[in-house]
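*** Residues and shapes ***
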Amino acid sequence: MGISRNIDEPCSSSSSSSMMQNNVHLSEIILQPQQESINEIIRSFNLHHFLISYFENSIEAFRLCEFLLSRIREIMANYRTTKRVMKLMKRVTMGADHIPSHEFYAIYKELASFALLKNPLSVISPTRFQSKHDSHVLLLHKLSSHCRNIRRKRKVFRRLKKAMACFLVVVCTALAITLSVFTIHSIVGIVASPVLMGSSCILAQRLKKMRNEHKMDQNDKIGAEFDVAAKGVFVLINDFDTISRLVRILSDQMDHNKEIVEMCIGRGNKEMLKEVSREFKVKENRFMQQLEELEECLYLCILNINRSRRIVVEKVIGC
């Protein structure tokens, strides 16, 4: 169970009770743009292998988010057993002097059921998140380095362009003056000098116009694509750092709950039952808040993945 949301809308906070009352509709979570469209773009535009790696990383991240949402649904299903246990243990914590044996039996039966539950998050090891983190950081480094190289080349090119323009103007002007000196008393000189001077002015104007034009060459286009992809990977790294932290906290708490329940079953006394009941009650709200936070982070991460993929595609196809 979890919060049902439209994946194209921002996540908003809600209470733990709303998580219990709604279902996660995983079928509504759609990767955008669809991978079939991305494959067609890769074939049509001959994408750089860094961008292909970006799309591969983004779809892997999407699938992991999708998988974690399904784990949250399983946790909420298990939570019903926890609620039954807490309800049965309520009389114990309220200090009832005598509890019928059949009630103790019912409590321990529910505790035994709880102890048999598997931790839904245990299937995701910390090394998997670390591997994802390392992969994303490496890709970010490659994209950022390539962007810096392109910007550096653009600066060098602009300086060379300006230097060449100045050089051509000086050469043309010097040539015109030289010819004018040698031909000033001839008819050819009278005709040629204005033409040469005019030509040098026209050349200077054209070169100036070229400097002011903002047409993006192929390197500039690739640089823009890489810049957008790098920003998307940077956001993905931050999102997954938060997600991995919450998964670790929640997984550890579930393992701890299972351990104390098994200990309670092993001892089989009222005082231990009270201690378990108190700990469940104290930590329940915090656990549900963190579970809700994880769910919201997952939806937000999917939103960011889809948004970044769309922007990169727009840059590639020139929208």
User: Anything to note?
Assistant: The CA atoms of residues 174 and 200 lie 10 Å apart.
